[in-house]
Task: structure prediction
Amino acid sequence: MRAPSALRLRLTEIFLSVQGESSRVGLPTVFVRLTGCPLRCTWCDTAYAFHGGTTVTVGEIVARVADYGVSHVCVTGGEPLAQAGCFPLLTALCDAGHSVSLETSGALDIADVDPRVVRIMDLKAPGSGEVEKNLWSNLAQLRPEDELKFVLSDSADYAWARSCIEEHALPQRCGVLLSPVQGQLEPATLADWILRDRLPVRFQLQLHKVLWGNAPGR
Result:
């Protein structure tokens, strides 16, 4: 049987940036972007990670992450859980002493993710074109240290998210994050809706885009 460190994955990129989203926003973070995604959200800003990439081992990724010399690591995509090797990678990064977060679409089961990992999971709103892909059983897996993200393109998306938040008592499960789709929903409008409805959520913008625009690897 192949050792976990020898397992192979398709990797799009590894880079150092500040975390642009979640409660970890602003922290220096190494991003490990795996290749491939089974979803095609209308507002996706990482379509370059759908295909291609380089085949590397778990051990090679852990070594490259260590070279950056920071503690926070975010495994993202595409959809990282689409590759079976993502699970041992997450464990290996935790074993190496990193504070690890996972950005996942919510379309794939998160139950087997190493419990040391903070899971930042999307629920896809209707405007994404992929609302049918939501795996609702994932909600029961969320813990207080995890976070649930909604990316919203218009008032209909917001109404849908508000209904989900209330129906499933999501703020009692974990932190809830609401973000506007860049160029489609004015940030101030979303903030006004949250304040109007007194939603117990965190409004967020993508800090890395504020700083560097849409440049890949930032």
In short: The first strand starts at residue 8 and ends at 18. The chain has one domain: 4-212. The radius of gyration is 17 Å.
